[in-house]
Amino acid sequence: MRKTKKIVMASLLAALSVGTLALTACDGEFTPLDGIPQGEVVSNGGFVVEKGDYVYFINGVETYTSDNTYGNVVKGALMRSKKADILAGDAEAETVVPSLMVAADYTSGIYIYGERVYYATPNNVRNTEGMIEYDYLDFKSARLDGSDVRSYFRVADNATAYRFVQAGADDAVYVLYADESDLRSYNTETGDDTLLAMNTTSYVFNAANVEDPVVYYTMNVTDDIDTDNPNQLKYTQVYRVSADATEAPYEYTFRQEYLDEHDGEAPYVNLGTLVLDGVGVNGIDEKGNATQFTQDLAEGVQPLTPNGYTYTLQSYENDGLYFTRTEVTSTSTTGEDGWLYYLAAAELDADWNSVTGNAAEHLDVVAQNTENTASNAVFYIDEQGGHHYLYVKDAVINRADVGENGVATVQRIARNVSGATLMFLDDTSDPDYGYVYFNRTSGSGLSVERAVYTGSAADYSNLERDPNYQPVKLLDVQHASSWYEYEVIDGVVYYADTDSSYANSLNYISAVNLNSENGLMTNGEIEELTELYEEVVDYINEISDDNVTLSTALTVYFYSGSTQYFKDNIDFAVENGKEEDYLYDEETQKAFYAFADEGKEGDEELSFKDHRTRSSFITQLGKFSEADQEAYDTYWTNKLEHYTVAETGSGLPGWAWALIGVGIALVVTAAVLIPVFVIRAKKKKAAQQPKKQLLAVDTTDDRSVDVYATEEPEPAEPEEPAEEPEVPAEDLADAEAEPVDDLPAEESEQPAEEPAEDAAEDPEQN
What we know:
The chain is an alpha+beta fold. Mean pLDDT is about 85; it is low at about 1-25 and about 655-765.
């Protein structure tokens, strides 16, 4: 599948290269896995990569400030599952690297080259003040079994834009990255860190192929740059450079006095080759020279404008550069300001001239009006070389078929898609249809949706008869926003599940298999699958009209795929003296097990018998952390009817606290705060008749008990006051801290409340 993505680069802070580090000092322990998978690598650079028979993935969304102790990390760690198991809907995951895969550049993730996986992870080393500097990002690699972890270097900003790429004759792996406005590359084999270009004004990595070692960028042109008063000219230049560059292709010279004054540091570093030079006629002196940065002025070469061009790069994709340019003055008639141009990389051969390359014969005009191409547009080129782009406007996805000089014919391909953001194209998975994937806000995340973009006008006007040309939404998928884009690899959709209708958006990775017996599901088949999903959900919801407790129990079963929570709650109630039908009557239990165990409604089989759980549609990948598993279990346990034993958090049963009552509170106060009160309390107690305490009664389940009934205390013989018992300090502290919740209403400060049924329904989000 070819994926075309929009890349938006964040502004970057300084990167600090610290050279090659020693092998990772592991605070935790980890046993490497068995086996190194062989085979093709598919979809490098995101949160999921396929290698042979295995799928490697980042195990959920985690924050970079979380504990990153090697060996302790579960959520956000690198894991793998067998591809066949994912397709079968029964995936088991193995942890490959128990470190956080958390970098803020969500256009770049994990990469596999050879038998190693390359990644970036937050620093977990403490500074001299004992603080972990989470913002630092470490670049590392490991073998595909998790062994032989290697650390390379560190940058000072977690949001650093980067790519792991292969370049050079030996296919060495480089980290191509940005250090503020500088572009750099790090050779993971030699440890060499190279400054490729200093003080760039903008740059774009390859938007469609994150493995591309070439980056395009713009540079200002500054005359007399090695003087105290350099003159920045108004035109700019476009360059490109590969990660393996080590020398500048052009000779730049600077005054020795300047170099001596600046410790030999040159004012200009650029290892790139010129793509476009915006020099104008007025930038050439009487001898035909411009600055030393203009390389392609020669006899017969004439700039196209008086004062030159400035360039704005939009993206590099479809094997070419998309950009706009503006004339420094508007006296020229060659081209228009703000037009979107495309320059094919194939043009940039040995005979390429960066000055004459501005001529119309070298550039394709993609759009004269960039209103619809400036953001969220996806571009492609057909087999005949024709340009097209997709964009969203007024809740419609449109296809612009570009004609001569950028004039386009527009075809509407999907209506009623308000808020849609286009993601990528797939024109290889289905021989009959080309798809554009997009998302919209859905529930607590983003939807997964798809439309056919390759149809004719007749196809889109025939929507009622051919469902395959209707846009379609996949189930109720909700993918985490502000993270990586969801991915589709070999017909499987991978996404971070943020559905808040269950387990409170735990954000672990899930997968939906779109492969059918006849190949990739068409839009019509996805619609049928979604309707089946909705049929199950609607069936369960409709039961609530007659039996809310049964409907809730079936909801828990549908999402969790387990009857164990239901059984455990009943067993717990029975263990505490309740009848078997205390939580659920016999009829409700029978109906629950008929649905869950046999796929029946009464004695009749359900039409969706084989799809009674969410896991029959969506496969959960990876492993839960201990905390998330506990939250998950607690959520389902408390969602169901459940019996609660009233007790305090100190470990003592409610009746014990009731017997101790106010007396123990006085003892705590006397012992901890003012010892003299002990003496006063003893005297007062000796002079009073002992008061009989009422037992606290748990009324949660047995409402036949009259908890407010009182009985007259029997007269008691006066007796000498007993010595106050000695209470350990820790017990006193507990007694002082814990509320006395089990006293009858007239004796406690506030009336006791029944435990809320959904008290633990919303575990803390991660």
